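Shapes recur. Our protein:

. . .
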Amino acid sequence: MKVAGVFAAFAATAIASTPTEQLEPRQTTTGSLPIVSVKGNAFFAGQNRFYVRGVAYQPGGAADAADPLIDIPALTRDIENFKKLGINTIRVYTVDNSVSHDAGMKLLADAGIYLALDANTPDFSLNRQNNQTLFQSYNENYLQSIFATIDNFAGYSNLLLMINGNEVINERNNTIAAPYVKALNRDMKNYIANRGYRKIPIGYAAADVAENVNQQLAYFDCGPDTVRGDFFALNDYSWCDPSSFTKSGWDAKVKRYSGYGVPIFMAEFGCITNRRDWGEIAALYSANMTSVYSGGLAYEYTAEPNGYGLSFLEKQSSPTNTDFTPQVNNNNGVISPNADFERLQRAYAATPNPTGDGNYFSTTTASTCPPVSSDWAVPNSLLPSMPRLAQRYMTNGAGKGPGLGDKVTTSQYGGQSYSEGLVAMEAQQPTGTNAGGTATGTGSASTGTKTSGAVPLEPLGSGANFALGVVGVVFGFGMF
C-alpha cells in the first residue's frame, strides 16, 4: 500500500444505530457466468480450474473514491479495453452499497468478467492507528455497511469473491489488527450463512511484508472453517523487469506456500522500478506456479499520481513516465491505453492457462496458528466478540447500505455497541431464522475480559507487544 487515509482524531459521540428491514434470503443468482467456488487450494468454475486474469479497477483512486460500477457510460467504455486485454476479473476497491448494481454487473457478465470486491470503504473501515481506534471502529455501524455490501452483491453469479481487508498489517509492528480482521472474516461468513446466500469466498489481501507474511498466511488459515479465509491474496511487487522465476524469488515462495489450505492469488502485481514488460505473466500462469497460485491482478487500470496505470483518463495530469503520454487529446471521458497497456495485452495473449487442473491440491488442511514472536504479537487464538447490536442483522438483514458521499457519517467515529470481550475461534455465533451453512448456536458467549463503553479490549491491546508504529485508516485501496 502506497497511501492510506489518515484520521487525526475521532469524535467521542456515538452515531445512531441503523434501522433494519426484514429481507428474504436470495438463494439464486443472476447473471450468465457460472459461479466460481473453492476446491482444495484452487478456484473452479464448474469442473474447470479458474485462474484470475485481470486488473485493479478504481478510476480516480483514493482522491475520488467513487463507485466505478454505477458509471455505466465509463464502464461500457472500459469494458472494451478489458476485452482487448483478454481478462476475466477486475478488482474494485470501493462501491456504493446503497444503490443497485444490476446494470454494471450485467455488462461485466456479458463480457465474461468476474468481480473481486473489497468490502470496506474509506468511511466504513477499521482504523489501525492504535488499540483504541481499532476497538471503536469495530462497531455495529461498520458491520451494517459490510453486511449491506454482501446483500447488494450476493445475487450476482459473477461476484468472484470479497476481500475483507487490504494491507491492514503492513509493518512488522502493527499485527494488533489481525484479530479484528479475522473476526470480520467470521462475521461475514456467518452473515452469509444466516441470510441463506451461496458460499461467497471471503479472504484477506496482504502486503508482502517480509518479516511476517508467513505468519499472516498461517494466521488467516488457522482455526475452524467458520473463521478461516477461503483464499489468501498477496499484493506482490517483487518481480521487477528484467527478472525471472528465480531472480524474483517466486520459486522460493512456491516452495514455501506449497500445501497451503486455500487458493492463493496476487491481488496486485506490477513493479514500476523499471519499464514494465510484464515478464511475470508467463511465470504466473506456468506449471511452475499453478499448483500453488491461481493467477492475479495487474495494478492498475488508470494512471494515478503514484506512477502506476495502464491508461490515461481525461483531467489527469500526465506522470513523468513517458508510457503515460496520451495517444489522443482526451475530452468528454475519453480514455487512451498507453504502452504499458499494450505490453500487458501482448503478455496475456501470449500466455494461455495451463491445460488440466494445474496440479492443484484437492485435499488440504488448516494451518497451525503462528506463535508469538518479535514479528508477530498476537498472543492467543481469541477473537473480539461481535458487537451486540450487530447480532440483529443475522435475523433481520442489514437493510439499505449507507453508501458514499459527504453526508455519510463514518463508522470510525464509533457506534452504540462494541465488542464485549474475547471469544474462542470455535465459539458458537448468533444465528437468525434463515441460518444455513456452518453457522450454529443461538448466542455469542464471550470468554475473557469483559468491557463496557468505548474502551479497548485489554487482552488484545495491553502491553508493549501491541505498540503501533503506523497511523492510518485501513480500507480497500491498494497503492493509491
Q: What stands out?
A: The first strand starts at residue 36 and ends at 39. Confidence is low (pLDDT under 50) at residues 1-28, 316-332, 435-455, 458-480.
